[in-house]
Amino acid sequence: MTARDTHDEEPRETPPAPGSLLLDDQLCFALYAASRAVTARYRPLLEELELTYPQYLVMLVLWDRDGSTVSELGKALQLESSTLSPLLKRLEAAGLLRRERRPDDERSVALHLTEAGTALRERAAAVPTAMGDAMGLTAEEDATAKRLLRLLTAHVTQDG
């Protein structure tokens, strides 16, 4: 049996031994495998919208908070502006958003959806349901998974 085969098995009932170097005992591998699987499952849904997964995340924020600044977007997505800039340029070139310097602060850039960007929201409305079905979690499991992942993120990003 390979490491690839073991991720399809039921989770073990006992915790791994401290310091275990078995692949399946590593939380990081479970996170990595889940992230890759989920992102791959998004791909065909997002191709229909002509978006990449990172572009979809940007659009999710803007559909909720049109007019956000690049700084606010970076904070929401936990991304640096150097990572966001190419995403925003592509979305702007696709006609989905426009970037505007804020009149009250020339250093700050606000992001506004275009008509096409706003209209895309309707086409994207089926994506969360399709992904929820694909994940096969109950509402309680979904909430627990998000809570645990947010807790994990908070712990590993703490200073010190």
CATH classification, class level: Mainly Alpha
- Give the SSE order as H and E letters: HHHHHEEHHH
Which stretches are low in confidence, meaning pLDDT under 50 for 5 or more residues running? 1-7
For the report, how would you describe the main beta sheet? 2 strands, antiparallel
Write out the CATH superfamily name: Winged helix-like DNA-binding domain superfamily/Winged helix DNA-binding domain
Protein name: MarR family transcriptional regulator
Domain HTH marR-type: 24-154
InterPro entries: HTH_MarR-typ, MarR/SlyA-like, Transc_reg_Sar_Rot_HTH, WH-like_DNA-bd_sf, WH_DNA-bd_sf
Organism: Streptomyces griseoaurantiacus
Can you describe this structure?
This protein is mostly helical. It has helices at about 5, 25-45, 55-65, 70-75, 80-95, 115-125, 125-135, 140-155, and strands at about 95-100, 105-115. A two-stranded antiparallel sheet has the order 1-2. It has one domain: Winged helix-like DNA-binding domain superfamily/Winged helix DNA-binding domain (Arc Repressor Mutant, subunit A, Orthogonal Bundle), CATH 1.10.10.10. Residues about 1-5 have low confidence and may be disordered. It has 8 helices and 2 strands, in the order αααααββααα.
At a glance:
This protein has 160 residues and is mainly alpha-helical.
Structural features:
160 residues; mainly alpha; Arc Repressor Mutant, subunit A; two-stranded antiparallel ribbon; 2 strands; disordered N terminus; cytoplasm; HTH_MarR-typ; WH-like_DNA-bd_sf; transcription
